[in-house]
Structures are given as C-alpha cells and as structure tokens.
Design a protein that fits this description.
Aspartate Aminotransferase, domain 1; Glutamate decarboxylase; Pyridoxal-P_BS; Aspartate Aminotransferase, domain 2; 11 strands; alpha/beta; four-stranded antiparallel β-sheet; binds pyridoxal-5'-phosphate
C-alpha cells in the first residue's frame, strides 16, 4: 500500500477543518447570492492547465464561492422548500463520498443496497403498502414522478397488447390543476397528454372532481396522480376517494408526495393520508421534509416487477447483473450509475430512530400553526389559506409585488431570513415553508413584525 504524500495530508486536514467549522456553526451564515460579474471579478478563472492546488482552490471556495451560496439549512431559509439535514445525515454523506460505494447493483453494492432498501421498506410500511413493495432513491421528485409514470404507461401498454386491444393514438395522465410542474415536464418528455382536473373550493380533488373528468371518457388515460401535499400550500388530495376510483377504472394510482408525504409520520396529519395504501407508486423527497441532504427522492412501487420490466437496461456488459436475479436499484427508474444517495437518511434513521422523525415533523406542523395564529393576530396581514402541513401563505395588506421584493431583499441583506415572494390567483404573497426544526417562534415573530412598515 502507498502512503499518501504530505500535500495530500495537508489538503485532507484543511478539508476536514473546513467541514468541522461549517458543522460547528449554530447556525451557519445565511450568506447571499451574487452576480456572474462579481464572481468573475473575485474568483476569476479557476480551471487552468496546471491546477491551482487544493489549498488555493479551497481558499477560493471558502472566501468567494461559499458566501455566494445561500445556506438552505439556515433556520431563516423559509422559501421554496428548504433542506434541513440532521447532523448524522450530513456526516454520513461525507462517509459515502469517502468510500468508493456503487449503488446501482446488488453484486457491487450489496451492503449499501440492503441499507437503502430497509429505508424504502420502512416508508412503504408507513404508507400501508405491502411488504413486496420496493423501489429506489433517485435524484429528485421530478425524476421520481417521470420514472413512475413511464412504468405505469409500459404496464398499460403491455396489458393492451396482451389482450389484443389496439393501442391509443395518445396516452394521457390526469392530475389536479394544482399539481407540481414536474408532471407537465414528465408529460412533455413522454409525449403524452396531461389532463388537469379542476380543484374543488378547498383546493383538493376527490371523488366528485375525478368522476367528472372520467365521464368525459378520455382516451388513452392510464394513470391518475394525486398530490400528497402541494408545494404551494401543502394541500393533500382525497387519496382514498381517488385511489378507489382509480382501482375501479383500472388506472394506475400515483401519489406525488415529494414535499408533503412526510406528514404521514405525524399523528397531527396522518389522517390526511388515508388511502395512500391504495397507491401503485408514490414518491417522497428526503431532501425536502425528511431531514436528509440533497439530493434524494424515494420512489416506491407496489409491484416493483412492473417497474423493472419498464426500466431495466440491457447491454452486453450488463447482462451478468441483469441475468442474476438480484435486486439491482438501477432497474427501477431512469438511471444506471448511481450514488447510494439513500445512505445518509439510512444512517440518520438508524441513529435516531423513527420516533425522533415523527417528533421533528410534528414540531414543524406546530410551528406552522403558531405562524398562522401570529398572522391572524396582526391587522396588517391576511392569511390566504388555513395551513394543513407546514406551509403558511399570507398577504401583507396593501403591498405590491415590488414591496414584497424590497422587504425580501432587506431580510436577506440583513442576514435574518430568506423569504421570497410567491403568488396566488394573480396576487403576490409571502410564503413560509417550515421543515427546519431549528426555526424558532421568535424568528417567525421577527419576520412578521418586519412587515409592519414598508
Ligand atoms: C418539489 C416537488 C417535486 C419535484 O421534486 P424535485 O426533487 O424538486 O425534483 C414534485 N412534486 C412536488 C409536490 C414537489 O413539492
């Protein structure tokens, strides 16, 4: 075995020191964004023929690049969907990187795949799916939704072929008009039609809305997607009603729970997910509300064999894996080479236990409720909708989009919080997405009070 040289050891220690410093912050600086011009001025050309050397490259990262990236794990990061990984999951992400682990096949990654599969089995069990369910951690919800729908269409196509029925000219998927943009992307990539189902007054789709869509007898329809927590509001569709209709009409039932499905872990919101057990597939992103680092989406199928038939790649150099009969994660989505990205979550779950996760999710929901109460108390604010999970949307009475933007810039520049404006029905608003257990009541109050004056 070779000994590593001194320069490598120096760099290693510098990197560990940097990581240690970053992990020791409570919290880490929120930091900011930057223009390409500013970064060019400060960092310049970093890729050179001879290399800068690791210490110099690290210095540029530390002094220029890192401050120009907003910390998504800061307790004041409340925009979009933040990412608030546990310390254990962050640490284990380092371990995954330090180990040459491949997560695509059982042959090469048995230990890693075993651990990932235990997490997937746990999620499937929480959802009420049978023990044979399974799947894979993919990069994100967009790829998870696409992979699930590709499997669903292939299953439908095979059913038609087997029973000698003609294939439709166009295939179609139906979902709520409030569903995530990634479903439009999936439909475009698959070259299929997306049928938006208008939501009821409460923002949901259920039996009435889906039945109305079905009476139009859409041809080529093979799946219905329900949303298990919309990204804008955290609204959960009526999964039980939709699941039963899907079953009755031989349609694949997919639940997109990228953000909200973690809500099934809390006794406060478990009831919203009744009917999830009927799903043919579902997704949930650990990088959103399961306290794991970017990037990971758990994609789970009721019958993984259907997914394998649709997704397994075949090639001469792969046959030894494909023909083995082993469980190879690559076979269950649009991916081949893959990082075992479920391992940080596995380690953290194994460390803390599931009860800690239930408590953390519950705490986020309670803080959203607290924010709701504080909003209602202030006469300059108006709640847009009652929060259901951990998203709170409200308006500052009388503000234009420009007012929200100026306020948002001020919060970021003062390093208090990152809350970008959102909108609903053409009106600008402010939105908190609360997934960080370190976000405090005091911070919420400070942010709300900062809206009193322009
Ligand atoms: C975020 C989100 C997605 C997309 O997931 P990515 O991980 O960002 O690709 C899909 N659906 C819903 C409901 C989401 O909230």
């Amino acid at each position: 075995m070779h000994r590593v040289n001194d320069a490598t050891v120096d760099l290693r220690e510098a990197i560990f020191a940097y990581a240690r410093t970053r992990l020791n912050y409570e919290p880490a600086p929120l930091d900011n964004t930057a223009s390409p011009e500013l970064l060019w001025q400060q960092a310049g050309q970093t890729i050179t023929e001879d290399g800068l050397g690791g210490l110099e490259a690290l210095k540029i990262f530390e002094q220029v690049l890192a401050p120009a990236t907003i910390s998504t794990d800061h307790p004041g990061y409340l925009s979009f969907i933040p990412c608030a990984p546990t310390e254990a999951s962050k640490l284990f992400d380092l371990v995954v990187s330090a180990s040459g682990i491949y997560g695509g096949s059982w042959l090469e990654g048995a230990g890693a795949v075993y651990a990932e599969n235990q997490v997937l089995s746990w999620l499937a069990k929480e959802a009420g799916l049978p023990a044979e369910s399974g799947g894979v951690f993919v990069q994100g919800g967009t790829l998870g939704n696409l992979s699930a729908l590709v499997a669903a269409r292939e299953n439908y196509r095979q059913q038609l072929l087997k029973s000698g029925q003609p294939l439709p000219n166009r295939f179609a998927v139906a979902c709520s008009s409030e569903a995530h943009s990634s479903l439009k992307t999936a439909a475009r990539v698959m070259d299929i039609d997306l049928l938006p189902i208008p939501v009821a007054a409460d923002g949901r789709i259920g039996h009435a809305e889906v039945s109305a869509m079905l009476t139009t007898k859409p041809s080529g329809l093979f799946a219905i997607v329900a949303t298990g927590g919309t990204t804008n509001f955290g609204i959960v569709d009526r999964l039980d009603e939709i699941g039963q209709l899907a079953k009755a009409h031989n349609l694949w039932f997919h639940v997109d729970g990228a953000y909200g499905l973690a809500g099934m872990l809390s006794p406060l919101t478990r009831n919203l997910f009744a009917g999830l057990e009927l799903a043919d597939s579902f997704i949930v992103d650990p990088h959103k509300w399961l306290f794991a680092p970017f990037d990971a989406c758990a994609l789970i199928y009721r019958n993984p064999e259907i997914a394998r038939a649709a997704h397994a790649q075949h090639g001469e150099y792969l046959d030894t894996l494909t023909d083995s009969g082993d469980f190879n994660p690559s076979d269950y989505a649009i991916n081949l080479t893959r990082r075992p990205r479920g391992l940080p979550l596995w380690f953290s779950l194994a460390t803390h236990g599931v009860a800690t996760y239930r408590e953390a999710v519950t705490k986020n929901i309670e803080l959203a409720k607290f924010a709701r109460d504080e909003i209602v108390k202030r006469d300059f604010l108006t709640l847009v909708r009652e929060p259901e999970l951990s998203v709170v949307v409200f308006e500052r009475n009388g503000w234009t989009l420009a007012d929200y933007e100026a306020w948002s810039d001020r919060l970021l520049n003062n390093q208090i919080a990152f809350v970008v404006p959102s909108s609903h029905a053409g009106r600008p608003n402010a939105r908190f997405a609360i997934v960080n257990p370190l976000t405090s009541q005091e911070l919420i109050v400070d942010i709300l009070n900062s809206m009193e004056d322009k």
